[in-house]
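Hi C.,

You asked whether I'd gotten around to modeling the 789-residue construct. I have! Everything is below, sequence then structure, no commentary in between.
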Amino acid sequence: MKEINIAFITDRMIKGHGVDLVVDRLADGLAREGYHTKVYCNYFDETFTNRKSYGIERLHYFKPAANPIIYEQRIRRLVPYLNSKQVDLFIIQSFPFYSLIPKLNAPVLAVEHGVVSVTDMPLKRKLKFKYMYHSQNMSYFKKAEGLITVSKYLLGCLPLSLRKKASFIYNGANHYKMKDVSSSEVADFRESMGVSADDILLLYVGRLNLTNQPYKGLAELVSIYQDIYQKHTNIKLLAVGFGSKNDEEYLKNQGILAIGNAPEEQMPLLYSSCDIYATASKWEGFDLPIAEAQGFGKPTISYNIGAHPEVSRNGHTGYIVDDYQEFKEKLEILLLNPDLREKMGREAKEYAKEFTWENSVKNYDHYIKKMLSLKDTDIQPKPHINRYKTAKSKDVSVVIVNYNSSYQVLNECLQSLTKQTHKEIEIIIFDNNSSNKEMLRDIKVLFPHIDIIYSGRNLGLGEGLNRAIEQATSKLILISNFDVVYNIDAVEQMVSLINNLDSSYIGVAPKVKFYFQRDFIENVGISIDENFYAGNYGRGQLDLSQYNKQEDIFGTSFVSCMIRKKAFLKNRVGPIDPSFFLFYEDVDFCYRANLHGYRFRSCPQAILYHRYSCSFRDEATAFQRIYYHQKLNIMKTAFKNAEEHNMKRILKNELGIQKQNLRDANLKHIARRIASDSRKSSRHLKRQRHFIQFSRQLFDSDIIKYSRGEKDYFDIVRNEPEYSIRNLLYSYRRLFALLGNEKYEGIVNYLTTLESTKFITDSRLFKDILHGKLEYEPISVHRFIDRLS
């Protein structure tokens, strides 16, 4: 079985646009057939962001130009970024992206939805659409390896030279849930709209603006309706579709019922509630609403233009008319003949079975396999996706980078993993050229099922993780330190959460507590502030359950976290930066993930214990090593990921700190090295920055916000929590904010008051006071009070 990556490129993915809906259904269908699909577009809304089957990414935005040639030139700046992705086939859906076809390094399938009629348009818009038609048909489509139109009509509009390699594939129309809408629901809706049981309700679905797209014919349909209404006052017209409040109000002032931007789930009710579907559109490459209405058993009436004779059958599923007068005549026939409406509705419902997404996807699948010379066995359909089903195969790969760990420490970690309630786990250890390899041989004897990869040299943490992840066979990756011990259900808790989150969430963070101080939190995920300094949610705080609610967070610490394996693909977040030898590799990865629009969530029900700073406690040079990697990697992270103004500010600040350190005899050597290595990496980082900024989905402020209000209460010099009233106060304040419990409000108020009194100067007195006031609080609180200084 092969992994085939398909990239759809289109202008937008928002509610109310036919092409966007088509892209969504094709991307979803091909993903279920076994392809890896992703949609790249200029902008999107929440309508399509929660699809589990395919990814969606906002492209770097280029402001549209009035001159289409200039706009195409801007769009072509995307070529290096798109070519950097692992794509086997590009499917391009719209202008101006057809201009990318000659420049892309993978085959292109162009989909032609048609260039609209320019009748009654202003001169500038006419010229734009004329240019689009000629540039596509005379230049770009010739250079595409494949070409599909969405109707026979559009196929016939192509130049003869293109028709030889082109095919037509109809769109589907069964995208709305065809649930049975009860007669009572229909009656209630019609009543709410002022439509009685005796009224005949016409439905129009499309743009609600009467002037911006004159070919849609809404103004003419309104005129037809008003003419008919003079004779038949029991007729009502309901216009539904994309439009503003002003558009709605204008239509209502014309006597038209209007619903702008109706939610997808309401569409079955709208189609079920009408008696006739009507459109006066003067150009359509396909016309989805006609096929949709017929799927709900409604007769249709439309002009004899474009693909209408293909989507409906004149005299059987409704009427196809030639002019304004015939439109009124045929509409009147339908108004006066309920039996005819019912008969045509039955035929319409049967004929609509020709237009299903199952057929469309099947035809695209066949066409793509022919283009890429694939066999049917190369692609295997995916089973139905149930977002609430926990995977049952070996669905978790634990990856551990080892460097000179002790037998006792690593053994305890592995014992905790093998005793998990979630049994379907594989364990991969990547050894970074440890000096005690005989210890690993003993470990292998004790745990024969684990895989150990031996490196000939120390590649650092980032690359070590990449090498281990490459060998993982599961869809979920549990990144783990070797010096952690897991509660028995920790893996099960993380798997359960991530499998019940939508696809925009790529990772979850467990609650990590200190191994030697188990009452205290080390982290429940990580954050980053405006200076790109990393923080740990809850570090140094007593665990009073103040972090026990699952929350959206900036990211996950690589001490331990679960991440979907697909996140490490180059066409998603990408691998961990191998140049991050130690520290900030998780910050950099999570920042890139945020930029791409992915999210992380805390999983405080999954608990583990970490021997904090285990690898550095015995090193005389530990401080300098930590300082070097942290400071260098802060700058690298900012250089790659930050918006330009933030990047310049952070680099200036950090280099300024190193300039000051040159005056310190103990730090000047390390300061020179940091500044030098920062300069050496700039060329490589600039290249990365170019691509990362092209894929930006969020501003820095949207990412940094996750650090708001978070406090770190860990003393790094003493390597222990900060024993202070302020630490205790913050823990209770967060607990009160979480639960709103009056008891915790009282404790917060008391601690706030106590902190500002002279009692704080008498250690024994204020400890006695606190023990009494917090008499019924957990024993860990009283142990904390005893340590207050």
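If it helps when you're writing up: The chain is about 40% helix and 15% strand.

Thanks,
B.
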